[in-house]
């Protein structure tokens, strides 16, 4: 079967057919996927009824895994392997999480605009989200094109943000929702890391904004001024003309480039509806900024 790509939005997102993620990929298939990602930033691969092992094997074609993706809360018992981010609403016994479950409280942060793993020194490259059990009653995933958002800025703003460094932490994003129930060890592992506000794609050379709910400071700025400025940029970057809304079909495998996008999940009735989504992630090329001294 030949590989075909159909755009879903003027600047971001496309459906790619002719790829079977369950089997080993040829060099030509990997090249087609990477070229599709460089152009569209989000690819939807439909009808991918894959196992966890197959998803991991497919993910490894695109770089080293972001290990520990599921260890945001140290006290959480994992339902999936450590290489997976479990973004379902199920506990280790495959029962729906209770309303006040600590893992559910922290996972509500996925409803904020973010880029995966910017709270790590080496952030994410690609994320691969498999829709094992999906809902059509809410639960859409929205993707914002951070390249188009950067391009639409005026020249003065581009010059102002070019040198800026932001601090990212899960404590900042979860704190926006009032979640502060962190252990002392978690606060150590979640200490802020630094990233450039403007990044350049290593293949295309296009510039994009590196925004995320994980941002809690701009180095050298008073915090209130920094957060007001970040809010303005977030509002700009998530205007409808920059956003593709994905409505899930079972066995969709959606891939996105965290270097050029933000995303968020929309609310659904997770207390009565089961949603089983499993994410694997690869690491980007390296840090985007020099870190502060320990």
Write up this protein.
The chain is of the alpha+beta class and 294 residues long. It has a single domain (4-283), classed as Clavaminate synthase-like (Double-stranded beta-helix, 4-Layer Sandwich). Helices cover 23% and strands 23% of the residues. The chain contains 8 helices and 15 strands. It has helices at 27-40, 52-59, 102-107, 146-151, 155-161, 170-175, 184-189, 223-237, and strands spanning 4-7, 14-17, 42-45, 85-86, 124-133, 141-145, 165-168, 193-196, 198-200, 207-209, 215-218, 243-246, 253-257, 261-265, 276-283. Strands 1-2-3-13-5-15-4 form a 7-stranded mixed sheet, covered by helices on one side. A 3-stranded antiparallel sheet has the order 12-6-14. Strands 8-7-11 form a 3-stranded antiparallel sheet. It is globular, with a radius of gyration of 18 Å. 38% of the residues are buried. The model has no long low-confidence stretch (mean pLDDT 94).
SSE inventory with pairings:
Elements: E1 4-7, E2 14-17, H1 27-40, E3 42-45, H2 52-59, E4 85-86, H3 102-107, E5 124-133, E6 141-145, H4 146-151, H5 155-161, E7 165-168, H6 170-175, H7 184-189, E8 193-196, E9 198-200, E10 207-209, E11 215-218, H8 223-237, E12 243-246, E13 253-257, E14 261-265, E15 276-283
Parallel strand pairs: 2-3
Antiparallel strand pairs: 1-2, 3-13, 4-15, 5-13, 5-15, 6-12, 6-14, 7-8, 7-11, 9-10
CATH class designation: Alpha Beta
Mean pLDDT: 94
Class based on secondary structure composition and strand pairing: alpha+beta
Strand content: 15-25%
Ends: how far apart?
53 Å
* CATH overall fold name: Double-stranded beta-helix
Give start-end ranges of low-pLDDT stretches: none
- What Rg, in angstroms, do the CA atoms define? 18 Å
Helix content: 10-25%
The ordered H/E elements are EEHEHEHEEHHEHHEEEEHEEEE
- Total helix count? 8
Q: At the fourth CATH level, what is the homologous superfamily?
A: Clavaminate synthase-like
What's the total number of strands?
Answer: 15
| Domain count | 1
Q: Which term fits the overall shape?
A: globular
Sketch the major β-sheet: 7 strands, mixed
- Name of the CATH architecture: 4-Layer Sandwich
Instruction: Note the quaternary state here.
Output: single chain
Strand order of the largest sheet: 1-2-3-13-5-15-4
């Amino acid at each position: 079967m030949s590989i075909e790509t159909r755009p879903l939005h003027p600047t971001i997102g496309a459906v790619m057919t002719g790829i079977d993620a369950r089997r080993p990929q040829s060099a030509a298939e990997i090249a087609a996927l990477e070229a599709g990602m460089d152009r569209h930033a989000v690819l939807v691969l439909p009808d991918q009824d894959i196992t966890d092992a197959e998803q991991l094997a497919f993910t490894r074609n695109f770089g080293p895994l972001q290990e520990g993706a599921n260890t945001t809360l140290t006290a959480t018992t994992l339902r999936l392997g450590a290489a997976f981010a479990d973004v379902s609403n199920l506990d280790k016994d495959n029962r729906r999480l209770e309303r006040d479950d600590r893992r559910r409280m922290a996972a509500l942060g996925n409803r904020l605009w973010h880029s995966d793993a910017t709270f790590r020194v080496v952030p994410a490259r690609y994320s691969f989200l498999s829709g094992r059990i999906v809902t059509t009653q809410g639960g859409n995933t929205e993707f914002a094109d951070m390249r188009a958002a950067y391009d639409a800025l005026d020249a003065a703003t581009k010059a102002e943000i070019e040198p800026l460094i932001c601090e990212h932490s899960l404590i900042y994003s979860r704190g926006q929702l009032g979640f502060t129930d962190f252990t002392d060890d978690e606060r150590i592992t979640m200490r802020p890391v630094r990233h450039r506000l403007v990044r350049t794609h290593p293949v295309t050379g296009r510039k994009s904004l590196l925004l995320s709910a994980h941002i809690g400071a701009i180095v050298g700025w008073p915090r209130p001024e920094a957060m007001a400025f970040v809010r303005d940029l977030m509002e700009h970057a998530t205007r409808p003309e920059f956003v593709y809304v994905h409505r899930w079909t079972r066995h969709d495998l959606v891939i996105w480039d965290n270097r050029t996008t933000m995303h968020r999940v929309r609310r659904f009735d997770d207390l009565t509806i089961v949603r089983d989504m499993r994410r694997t992630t690869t690491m980007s090329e390296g840090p985007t900024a020099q870190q502060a001294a320990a």
